[in-house]
Amino acid sequence: MAKVSVYNMEGKQVGDMELNDNIFGVDVNEHLMHMSVIGQLANKRQGTQSAKTRSEVRGGGAKPWRQKGTGRARQGSIRAPHWTGGGVVFAPKPRDYSFKLNKKEKRAALKSALTTKVNDNKFIVLEELKFGEIKTKKMSAVLNNLNVNKALVVIADNDKNVVLSARNISGIKTASTSTINVYDILKYDTFIVTKDAVATMQEVYA
Protein backbone atom coordinates (compact mmCIF):
# COMPACT_ATOMS: atom_id res chain seq x y z
CA MET A 1 0.00 0.00 0.00
CA ALA A 2 1.14 3.53 -0.77
CA LYS A 3 1.85 5.66 2.28
CA VAL A 4 1.31 9.44 2.30
CA SER A 5 1.93 12.08 4.92
CA VAL A 6 -0.93 13.70 6.81
CA TYR A 7 -0.72 17.45 7.46
CA ASN A 8 -2.59 19.83 9.70
CA MET A 9 -3.94 23.22 8.64
CA GLU A 10 -0.64 24.85 9.63
CA GLY A 11 1.17 22.75 7.03
CA LYS A 12 2.99 20.58 9.58
CA GLN A 13 3.17 16.80 9.23
CA VAL A 14 1.21 15.08 11.99
CA GLY A 15 1.31 11.48 10.82
CA ASP A 16 1.09 9.00 7.95
CA MET A 17 -1.74 7.26 6.20
CA GLU A 18 -1.86 4.12 4.07
CA LEU A 19 -3.89 4.27 0.87
CA ASN A 20 -5.84 1.41 -0.63
CA ASP A 21 -4.01 0.15 -3.74
CA ASN A 22 -7.34 -0.82 -5.30
CA ILE A 23 -8.07 2.91 -5.64
CA PHE A 24 -4.81 4.81 -5.38
CA GLY A 25 -2.39 2.22 -6.79
CA VAL A 26 -4.00 0.85 -9.95
CA ASP A 27 -2.47 0.54 -13.42
CA VAL A 28 -3.05 3.92 -15.03
CA ASN A 29 -5.29 3.71 -18.11
CA GLU A 30 -4.66 6.91 -20.06
CA HIS A 31 -7.17 6.02 -22.76
CA LEU A 32 -10.05 5.78 -20.29
CA MET A 33 -9.01 9.05 -18.62
CA HIS A 34 -8.96 10.70 -22.04
CA MET A 35 -12.41 9.32 -22.91
CA SER A 36 -13.78 10.47 -19.57
CA VAL A 37 -12.51 14.03 -20.07
CA ILE A 38 -13.74 14.19 -23.66
CA GLY A 39 -17.11 12.84 -22.57
CA GLN A 40 -17.52 15.40 -19.80
CA LEU A 41 -16.61 18.29 -22.11
CA ALA A 42 -18.93 16.95 -24.82
CA ASN A 43 -21.81 16.63 -22.37
CA LYS A 44 -21.41 20.30 -21.46
CA ARG A 45 -21.94 21.44 -25.06
CA GLN A 46 -25.35 22.97 -25.70
CA GLY A 47 -25.43 21.89 -29.34
CA THR A 48 -27.76 24.75 -30.27
CA GLN A 49 -25.76 26.22 -33.17
CA SER A 50 -27.76 26.52 -36.37
CA ALA A 51 -27.41 28.02 -39.85
CA LYS A 52 -29.65 27.91 -42.92
CA THR A 53 -29.00 25.77 -45.97
CA ARG A 54 -29.88 26.98 -49.48
CA SER A 55 -33.32 25.42 -49.18
CA GLU A 56 -34.10 27.42 -46.02
CA VAL A 57 -32.87 30.89 -47.02
CA ARG A 58 -35.64 33.29 -48.03
CA GLY A 59 -35.89 34.09 -51.76
CA GLY A 60 -34.04 32.69 -54.73
CA GLY A 61 -37.01 30.91 -56.26
CA ALA A 62 -36.60 32.43 -59.72
CA LYS A 63 -33.68 31.71 -62.04
CA PRO A 64 -31.48 34.88 -62.09
CA TRP A 65 -31.09 34.86 -65.88
CA ARG A 66 -31.70 32.47 -68.75
CA GLN A 67 -29.52 29.43 -69.13
CA LYS A 68 -27.80 30.38 -72.41
CA GLY A 69 -26.98 33.42 -74.48
CA THR A 70 -25.98 35.96 -71.81
CA GLY A 71 -22.25 35.24 -71.78
CA ARG A 72 -22.35 34.65 -68.04
CA ALA A 73 -22.09 31.39 -66.14
CA ARG A 74 -25.28 29.48 -65.71
CA GLN A 75 -27.05 30.09 -62.38
CA GLY A 76 -30.12 28.50 -60.86
CA SER A 77 -30.67 30.57 -57.71
CA ILE A 78 -29.34 33.70 -56.03
CA ARG A 79 -29.42 31.75 -52.76
CA ALA A 80 -26.81 29.18 -53.82
CA PRO A 81 -23.89 28.94 -51.36
CA HIS A 82 -21.45 30.93 -53.52
CA TRP A 83 -23.78 33.93 -53.69
CA THR A 84 -23.76 36.69 -51.08
CA GLY A 85 -26.74 36.03 -48.86
CA GLY A 86 -26.88 32.44 -49.99
CA GLY A 87 -27.26 29.37 -47.83
CA VAL A 88 -24.44 27.60 -45.98
CA VAL A 89 -22.95 24.39 -47.34
CA PHE A 90 -23.45 21.54 -44.81
CA ALA A 91 -24.89 24.05 -42.35
CA PRO A 92 -24.58 23.17 -38.64
CA LYS A 93 -27.84 22.08 -37.04
CA PRO A 94 -28.88 21.54 -33.41
CA ARG A 95 -27.56 18.18 -32.21
CA ASP A 96 -26.70 16.26 -29.07
CA TYR A 97 -22.94 15.82 -28.59
CA SER A 98 -23.15 13.77 -25.41
CA PHE A 99 -22.02 10.18 -25.07
CA LYS A 100 -21.73 7.81 -22.14
CA LEU A 101 -19.10 5.60 -20.57
CA ASN A 102 -20.30 2.56 -18.68
CA LYS A 103 -19.92 2.37 -14.89
CA LYS A 104 -16.81 0.19 -14.93
CA GLU A 105 -15.06 2.54 -17.36
CA LYS A 106 -15.97 5.59 -15.26
CA ARG A 107 -14.72 3.91 -12.09
CA ALA A 108 -11.47 2.80 -13.75
CA ALA A 109 -10.84 6.28 -15.17
CA LEU A 110 -11.41 7.88 -11.75
CA LYS A 111 -9.04 5.45 -10.05
CA SER A 112 -6.41 6.07 -12.74
CA ALA A 113 -6.65 9.84 -12.19
CA LEU A 114 -6.29 9.45 -8.42
CA THR A 115 -3.34 7.10 -8.85
CA THR A 116 -1.69 9.65 -11.14
CA LYS A 117 -1.86 12.31 -8.42
CA VAL A 118 -0.36 9.93 -5.86
CA ASN A 119 2.44 8.91 -8.25
CA ASP A 120 3.25 12.56 -9.00
CA ASN A 121 3.33 13.47 -5.28
CA LYS A 122 0.47 15.89 -5.85
CA PHE A 123 -1.80 14.19 -3.32
CA ILE A 124 -2.05 16.02 0.02
CA VAL A 125 -4.02 14.64 2.96
CA LEU A 126 -5.24 17.05 5.64
CA GLU A 127 -6.06 15.87 9.15
CA GLU A 128 -9.11 18.13 9.02
CA LEU A 129 -10.35 21.25 7.28
CA LYS A 130 -12.84 23.18 9.36
CA PHE A 131 -13.54 26.88 9.91
CA GLY A 132 -15.69 28.46 12.59
CA GLU A 133 -16.77 31.13 10.13
CA ILE A 134 -16.71 31.97 6.44
CA LYS A 135 -13.29 33.56 5.98
CA THR A 136 -11.39 33.62 2.69
CA LYS A 137 -8.25 34.78 4.51
CA LYS A 138 -8.19 31.59 6.59
CA MET A 139 -8.51 29.39 3.51
CA SER A 140 -5.71 31.32 1.81
CA ALA A 141 -3.53 30.83 4.87
CA VAL A 142 -4.05 27.05 4.74
CA LEU A 143 -3.13 26.97 1.05
CA ASN A 144 -0.04 29.08 1.69
CA ASN A 145 1.01 26.75 4.50
CA LEU A 146 0.81 23.86 2.04
CA ASN A 147 2.57 25.84 -0.76
CA VAL A 148 -0.36 25.30 -3.11
CA ASN A 149 -1.65 27.66 -5.81
CA LYS A 150 -3.99 25.59 -7.97
CA ALA A 151 -5.83 22.77 -6.28
CA LEU A 152 -8.97 20.69 -6.05
CA VAL A 153 -10.04 20.56 -2.39
CA VAL A 154 -12.14 17.51 -1.54
CA ILE A 155 -14.10 17.26 1.70
CA ALA A 156 -16.23 14.43 3.06
CA ASP A 157 -19.40 16.51 3.38
CA ASN A 158 -20.63 19.80 2.01
CA ASP A 159 -19.17 22.10 4.69
CA LYS A 160 -20.63 25.51 3.91
CA ASN A 161 -17.86 27.44 5.68
CA VAL A 162 -15.12 25.70 3.71
CA VAL A 163 -16.92 25.96 0.36
CA LEU A 164 -17.71 29.66 0.70
CA SER A 165 -14.27 30.47 2.11
CA ALA A 166 -12.63 28.98 -0.99
CA ARG A 167 -15.13 30.26 -3.55
CA ASN A 168 -13.39 33.56 -4.34
CA ILE A 169 -9.85 32.17 -4.49
CA SER A 170 -8.57 31.92 -8.06
CA GLY A 171 -7.40 28.46 -9.07
CA ILE A 172 -9.17 26.68 -6.20
CA LYS A 173 -12.24 24.48 -6.46
CA THR A 174 -14.01 22.53 -3.74
CA ALA A 175 -15.82 19.24 -4.20
CA SER A 176 -17.27 16.45 -2.10
CA THR A 177 -16.40 12.78 -2.44
CA SER A 178 -19.61 12.22 -4.41
CA THR A 179 -18.94 14.97 -6.99
CA ILE A 180 -15.28 14.46 -7.90
CA ASN A 181 -14.58 13.69 -11.55
CA VAL A 182 -11.61 12.90 -13.78
CA TYR A 183 -11.64 16.28 -15.54
CA ASP A 184 -11.29 18.29 -12.31
CA ILE A 185 -8.69 15.93 -10.85
CA LEU A 186 -6.46 16.31 -13.90
CA LYS A 187 -7.18 20.02 -14.40
CA TYR A 188 -5.91 21.14 -11.00
CA ASP A 189 -2.24 20.66 -10.13
CA THR A 190 -2.76 19.42 -6.58
CA PHE A 191 -5.36 17.14 -5.04
CA ILE A 192 -6.05 18.17 -1.43
CA VAL A 193 -8.30 15.83 0.53
CA THR A 194 -9.28 15.51 4.16
CA LYS A 195 -8.63 12.31 6.10
CA ASP A 196 -12.36 11.70 6.44
CA ALA A 197 -12.84 12.10 2.69
CA VAL A 198 -10.11 9.54 1.97
CA ALA A 199 -11.86 7.07 4.29
CA THR A 200 -15.16 7.69 2.51
CA MET A 201 -13.57 7.24 -0.93
CA GLN A 202 -11.91 3.99 0.12
CA GLU A 203 -15.26 2.74 1.40
CA VAL A 204 -17.23 3.73 -1.69
CA TYR A 205 -14.81 3.04 -4.55
CA ALA A 206 -12.95 -0.03 -3.24
From TrEMBL:
Q: Does the keyword Nuclease apply?
A: no
Q: Does the keyword Heme apply?
A: no
Pfam families per UniProt: Ribosomal_L4
Q: Name one GO biological process term.
A: translation
Stretches of Polar residues bias are at: 43-52
Gene Ontology cellular component terms for the protein in this record: ribonucleoprotein complex; ribosome
Region annotation Disordered: where it falls in the sequence: 43-78
What keywords appear on the UniProt entry? Ribonucleoprotein, Ribosomal protein, RNA-binding, rRNA-binding
Which molecular function GO terms apply here? rRNA binding; structural constituent of ribosome
Q: Which family, according to UniProt?
A: Belongs to the universal ribosomal protein uL4 family.
Q: How does it assemble?
A: Part of the 50S ribosomal subunit.
Its biological purpose: One of the primary rRNA binding proteins, this protein initially binds near the 5'-end of the 23S rRNA. It is important during the early stages of 50S assembly. It makes multiple contacts with different domains of the 23S rRNA in the assembled 50S subunit and ribosome.
Q: What is this protein called?
A: Large ribosomal subunit protein uL4
Query: Taxonomy-wise, where does this protein's organism fall, top ranks first?
Result: Bacteria, Bacillati, Bacillota, Clostridia, Lachnospirales
